Amino acid sequence: MKKRKDIITVAIDSPAAAGGGTQAKLIAKHYNLQHLDTGRIYRLIGKLKLENPKKFNYSLIRKKIKNLNMSSLQNKNLLSDKVATSASIIAKDKKIRDIVHQFQKKCAYAPPLKYAGSVLDGRDIITVQVRDAMFKFFITASLKERTKRRYKELKNLNKKINLNIVLKSLKNRDKSDRERKHGPLKKTKDSILINTTKLSKKACFMKIKDIMDRKLKA
Ligand code: C5P
Fold it and tell me: What number does the ligand 1 atom closest to the CA of 124 have?
């Protein structure tokens, strides 16, 4: 992979439903960056496991990642809670993470020329994937607020769901994502903390934009 020079790189880490993905999308649009929601890749593999429990192995995953394109990550059926849980289980596997990383690095450092750079969001983007990112944001929100948001999201997808199940599932994923051995979610000292609990999407983006513009225009 040939890295592109002088591109804008934005790395975002955040727990589930904290607003990391939403802000990444807004940043991508405003600054013309390629956006990769890295959770979608783990979800794709988590779904692969649910659908092919017997055939699920590293070579199947490698094949899937090799043929991966951005549009296959947009599939709405990746958004269910069952798939998210399966994703957080397979995401503990170091070998699987290594396979996913190759794809992510390319998106981060060699985005297509039409883009001015890249923005990746996930759990280990600042800590592992894009350690030298120009901008590093750790986006979080209270568990209560995240539960409310995720519940609304799943309701909009017509999923039969109850608030307590959403809460429990987020709690379990938080624990697994924070305590796992490889690529655990944690805030680095050099990342900027943004708490979205009481912020609207727009207010949150304005805060980020302010920080980015100050550096880009300096
Ligand atoms: O972000 P999202 O909720 O879609 O991620 C689903 C799961 O994928 C997470 O709970 C986490 O276990 C895993 N993941 C990860 N590393 C990333 C992104 C997501 O392990 N960079």
Answer: 21
